[in-house]
Amino acid sequence: MIRIGNVLVSPGEGGVYGERMIEGCRVWDPYRSKLAALIMLGGEIDLLPDMRVLYLGAANGTTASHVADYVETVYAVEFAPRPMQDLLEVARRRKNIVPIMADAGRPGEYAPFVEAVDLVYQDVAQKNQVQIALRNAAFLKEGGRLILMLKTRSVDVRMDPKDVLRETVDALSPAFRVITACWLEPYHRDHAALVCEAVK
Ligand code: SAM
What we know:
By secondary structure, this protein is α/β, with parallel strands linked by helices. The protein has a single domain, classed as Vaccinia Virus protein VP39 (Rossmann fold, 3-Layer(aba) Sandwich). It is 26% helix and 31% strand. It has 6 helices and 11 strands. The protein has helices spanning 34-40, 62-70, 81-93, 129-136, 152-155, 161-172, and strands at residues 2-4, 7-10, 21-22, 25-27, 52-56, 73-78, 97-101, 117-122, 140-151, 176-183, 191-198. The protein is globular. The site of S-adenosylmethionine has 18 residues, from helix 2 and strand 6.
């Protein structure tokens, strides 16, 4: 990952959402992007030029655009019409984002358009986050990884976030082995990032 000083950046054309530029690179703000937060907190994330990524919950393409600056192809799934409009505009300017309007809980709907991927990145903030991850595991290549951004309050507002995290780790096995799990504070409250490896 590219840092200029201690600022995380991505190497792409700017002007996607008003992001700052430094030395021709786009500043990737950890307060706006959970993936940037994970990287800034020391998460060992590979985003390499030959990688394909299935991105679940792409919203308006903020984080997806930074991922696309690093990798070969991003399949960006989003089901809400309003953010999808912005995502389409982002994809129009970046040839390696494939926007897919679909429910990530129904991967059969987009399976015909998606190749095997190296990474599934999920940020859907839904109660059924684990089920969505499990249903999309089939897209991963052998040894592929899942990064799950877990919004604990979406699962159960009354539960202790630590218990939600523990239950999520259990529920992801046996399809995934959790390599690391960390909280995203101070950047994002009540969010944990789980980096997992597919078990096939
Ligand atoms: N990842 C985005 C970023 O960093 O730029 C922010 C994602 S936002 C927290 C969650 C998004 O997931 C929303 O845009 C929501 O519409 C979408 N979403 C939630 N459930 C979904 C589902 N089942 N299928 C597709 N998109 C979903």
